[in-house]
Structures are given as structure tokens and as C-alpha cells.
Amino acid sequence: MSQFAGRVALVTGAGGGIGRAIAIKLAREGAAVGINVMANRSGGDETLAAVAAAGGRGRVLQGDISEAGVADALAAELAGNFGAATILVNNSGIGSPGSPDSVLEIAPDDWDRVMAVNVRGAMLCARAVLPDMIAAGRGAIVNIASIRGVTAARNLAAYSASKGAMISLTQEMALDYARHGVRVNAVSPGFVESEMFKGYLDRQPDPAGARDHFASTAALNRIGRPEEVAEAVVFLASDEASFVVGANLLVDGGNMANGLRAFL
């Protein structure tokens, strides 16, 4: 298939996990892909190699999207090589980098960093590509939120707040730019095999037991695969989702349908 032939996509946080799977899937569908990483240059290079192996074209774009001017520079570099992006996937996301993620324990600087990467970065990337999308009369933005933006969990104050903000930002941008031919939607993954999820498990007293527990909370009784999230993203970015605007698609194996439960 080549439903994105001639299209250009920017995927943030594409140095591994879900972001890498999205970049590869978009490339297989014909898009030229900008592979953004903040510090993980080796991961970006590995994603680029995988894109090439899939028969696609791409370019590693290193930079901290939360910093002023960086997203504009990345979008310009991508446009200079392949053309203006008409697909944006805001996938970059972090948890609290240095302190426990509860209101009484998180360091204010860590709170600010989570919000800067997860929310400000997404906004700045959207600002960087929206003018070209509007000029083209078409575009798709897919924001990667989380089930933790839909329901809370203990000790994820900044992360949950940032993902809830991402869902609200998705709806707001959808209303503002749909009339220009730009569709904005979100995907909220559940527990998916990724570097972030593995890091969280590794911090638990019994990582294997914790993994089994999280798997058991989904109706499918397993952890998701990055490729399964990528399939949902590609659908929302495609013309097959032409009447889908402002949606938040849960890709969680039935986790939210299983009701509110105590996690760890």
C-alpha cells in the first residue's frame, strides 16, 4: 500500500518504542518521515535504518521540541529535504525525570519538565506545521496521549495531568482547524511494550509480577505492542478517517472497559 505517497510526516520521540513503530508504518505507507529525537541519536539512527529497510525515506531530526524555535527549525529542515509536513504525530512523552510523581514529592523543576515536553512540545510542533497544512488545505495531527489522561493512577500526578491536557488540546485544535482541512485526533495507549513501560517495571520490587499484573488488567490479558498503536495512528492520519475529528481513540486492550481498578 502507498496511501501516503508524496506525503511528509514528522514523528516526535521516534527513537524507539511506539514512535519507531509509527515512523516505520508511515514509511511503509509511502510517507517520507522526519524522525525526531531529543538526546537519543543512536535510537534515531536505528529508526532511520528500519525505515530504509521498509523501503521508505526518512531523516533524523535531533532537537528538544520544548525549546523555543526548535520545532520551527526541524519543520524547516524536513521541508527542505522532502517538502512540507502534512502529517504530525506528537509522540514525545516523559515521566518525572528525578523525583516521585506525586504533588507532595515531585520537584517543581521535574513537574515543569514533564509539562514542557509532553504539552508545550506538542503545541510548538503543531505551531510549526499548521501554516503549511492550512496552505495545503489538508493535514492530520495525531497526539499520543494515554489512558492515564482519561483516568488517574497513584503517583503519576504530572504525567496524568500532562496527558489529560493533551486530550483537551486535541479537542481544542480540532475545533480551531477543521475548517481549514486539518484533522486533529488523539490516541491513548494502555500498557504497551516500550522503553518507558520497561523502566517503570524495573523500578518495582517484583518487575515480572508487576508486568503480569498490568497484563491482567486488560480484557485481552496481555501487554500491547507498539505496532498496534501505530496501526491506530496511521488510520487517524489517513483519508479513511476523513470524518474523525477531535476523537480520543483508546488502544488499551480493553483496559478502560474493564473499569477502575487499583494498580500498583
Can you walk through the features of this model?
Helix 3 packs parallel to helix 4. Helix content is 45%, strand content 14%. Strands 3-2-1-4-5-6-7 form a seven-stranded parallel beta sheet, with helices on both faces. It contains eight helices and seven strands. By secondary structure, the protein is of the alpha/beta class. Strand 2, helix 2 and strand 3 form a beta-alpha-beta unit. It has a single domain, classed as Rossmann fold (3-Layer(aba) Sandwich), CATH 3.40.50. The termini are far apart. The radius of gyration is 17 Å and the shape is globular.
Summarize, please:
This protein is of the alpha/beta class and 264 residues long.
Q: Could you name the CATH class?
A: Alpha Beta
What order do the SSEs take from the amino end to the carboxyl end, as H and E? EHEHEHEHEHEHHHE
Output the CATH topology. Answer: Rossmann fold
Percent of residues in helices comes to 40-55%
Strand-helix topology:
Blueprint: E1 8-11, H1 17-28, E2 32-37, H2 41-53, E3 57-62, H3 70-82, E4 87-90, H4 108-136, E5 139-144, H5 157-177, E6 182-189, H6 195-202, H7 207-216, H8 226-237, E7 248-251
Parallel strand pairs: 1-2, 1-4, 2-3, 4-5, 5-6, 6-7
Keywords:
264 residues; 7 strands; Rossmann fold; 7-stranded parallel sheet; alpha/beta
